[in-house]
Amino acid sequence: MRVDSITLRRLRMRLKAPFETSFGTTYDRPILLVELASDGITGWSEVTATEGPFFNAESVDIAALVLRDFLVPLVLGKTFSGAHEVPAAFAAVRGHEMARAGIENALWDVEAQQRGQPLWKLLGGTREEIPCGVSLGLQDSPEKLLEKGAVEIAAGYQRIKIKIKPGKDLAYISAVRKAYPDILLSVDANSAYTLDDLEHLRGFDEFNLLMMEQPLWWDDIYAHSKLQKQIKTKICLDESIPHLRAARTAVELGACGIVNVKLGRVGGFSSARDIQAYCIGKNIPNWCGGMLECGIGRAHNIAVSTLPGYTLPGDISASARYWAEDVIEPDVTVTPQGTIRVPQTPGLGYHVRHDLIERWTVEKQTFRAP
Ligand code: OSB
Ligand code: MG
């Protein structure tokens, strides 16, 4: 596969409802898409960076710059025998995982189309139906949270995750647990606590949570290992795991019992597969996290969730929970049993709506190989 051209597109998509985490509220999701042409085939991917460097050190603007000045020149005009060769081409660049994933994942889409295979099969996926959960943003009151939760439970979702932060935790967790004694329930703090909160966090143990996601500093695996030894609830790391080396450090230090894999955060499908292969050998369950993706990122998330070891419901929910209209066809839909059936057509498995993407594009830059 020769990389003939790469187009970076900026879109602005309005979320149906604002999404609040401990690091901020998103109203409009800035979307950065990569359109990669190779041998007459177009592959798509989504750069999952957020508007500012608050989830990780990346942002859509920083990612676009790193792509334009450093990553695109490293692959443009080059020939790859498989998308798995892309990480080696980026070896000199440190960090910027979401930007890297943008190119690598688009080439995976090209490769799958070229081989006439669904992307999930090419990756080595084994599951044709994946379990789904929802992530509920911070709400104004426990009652409001219960209202939101009821809708999702009725829709069949298999796990509810609630965002928490100091002052918006115990009352919310206990309200949901009381209303639903048996559901899979987890919490995500996005690094809102410190080790000084140990006693408080230990109080979560009584709610039989599936996991507590990223309670402490985004870059501090050691602190999580200290916390994990003193609480019963399993810690799941999200922000702290940008690559396999971090996953290995976390597991060996006993910093978590579960690892969330986000395709962008770990730098793409190759790294996600490495982490999955390592975790399965250590009996550490994986699941796929979300970054409020549009249909393209969502389709990639579905593909990675078919890998062995993705035994827990992911944060992959229906397009319609986020968007009035999505950029793929058909929309991602969830069965009444809270699953997504994986597509069977080559590549992404969804039709990319070029017309809509073109209409919503606010900025576009194409780089062509000579
Ligand atoms: O920590 O999982 C997270 C959204 C933006 C940034 C970080 C996170 C999230 C979510 C949303 O929880 C997951 C989704 O896409 O539904
Ligand atoms: Mg998280």
Quick summary:
Helices cover 32% and strands 23% of the residues.
Q: What is the first-to-last residue Cα distance? A: 16 Å
Q: Which regions are unreliable across 5 or more consecutive residues at pLDDT < 50?
A: none
Question: What is the percentage of strand-forming residues?
Answer: 15-25%
* Sheet with most strands: strand arrangement: 5-6-7-8-9-10-11
What kind of sheet is the major sheet? 7 strands, parallel
Q: Give the tally of β-strands.
A: 15
Structural class category: alpha/beta
Rg measurement, Å? 20 Å
Element string (H = helix, E = strand):
EEEHHHHEEHEHEHEHEHEHEHEEEHE
Count every helix, treating DSSP H or I runs of 4 or more residues as helices.
12
Shape, please?
globular
Estimate the mean pLDDT confidence: 97
**Ligand kinds:** 2-succinylbenzoate, magnesium ion
- Give the fraction of residues assigned to helices: 25-40%
